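ok trying this again, last paste got cut off
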Amino acid sequence: MHVTQLRCSACPRRYSARELHHLCECGKPLLVDYDLRAAASRLTPGGLAGGEKSLWRYRELLPVEDAGNIVTLGEGFTPLLELRRLGGNLGLGNLYLKDESANPTGSFKARGMAVAVSMALELGVRALAVPSAGNAGGALAAYAASAGIEAHIFMPLDVPVANRIESMQYGARVTLVDGLITDCARAVREGVERFGWHDVSTLKEPYRLEGKKTMGYELAEQFQFRLPEVVLYPTGGGTGLIGMWKAFDEMEQMGWIDERRPRMYTVQAEGCAPIVRAFEAQRQEADEVVGAHTVAAGLRVPRAIGDFLMLEVLRGSRGGAVAVRDDEILAAVTEIAAAEGVFAAPEGAACLPALRRLIQTGTVRADDRVVMFNTGSGFKYLELFT
């Protein structure tokens, strides 16, 4: 509502917010800027108490101008669960799980697609396309169906069955590709050039990030605007990590929080850990992983266009990056479910073995407030447990 411009994340270029854009001319992602003074005059932390029970409670800080263009299935406002048993086992007095499986379509991808599809509707787009390792495709299919917009989804052949089925049931046109998500992205580019689809790939348009940033707003609100000391976030394309960091900056500028930030830790699978490798090598960008493999489909992203932004977040927060094995991930799914009653997706469960390593090295202390993000539902991955 209070958007002023789109700006490049890497160069000085600026763009109009009321026109359709993808990447900057330099090839890097665009970010949405707001008149935060105006937003803060309309929305205050105290005024949130009676707000809508969805991410649209932060509408003053989201880009949709006409409320009639909002496409919503009730996304956001997910629970922050205190993990007393797991915390006790790990020697932590303040361990929490932000459970994004409570979103429509069962994952955090609903947040980004709600805002991206709403903006596509507002800007007159009639056909959307995305490459997906699974959950993004299902989310796009659902929101496109609600908006009455055509959806084209390209998924790897071995995508989790639930993701393929849900996308088709929502009426999307699903194409299975023999390869990884990077191969799916090439197919999307061909379709964009040939048919004029609007590409809503991760960070190739500016609005999925705006939906994902609401995780940061919710985290602050659920902690009474005193952010936790540590956040562990499973990272594929990294939009959620980047979005939360953007939310923290916006909230500080509006006077909602102070300058203190959580130490942000990205979690990846050993079979596909480009950000971990780049962080450890003190690089500014990550090399593409050849032969990427992991049971956590959402973490199987060989190269992310926002790699430099993720690395800036990790270093700026004095955090880090941890890679874990697939057997540790699967064991963690069972451990979290049995101890806390949450059937986490493999991506979210990967945070638990990563946390153990951070505790063992003394990086996470017993008195730290620690939040792990479960980005989706384990029910999407039943074939891994049969």
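PB: full thing came through this time. Residues 181-195 form the longest helix (15 residues).
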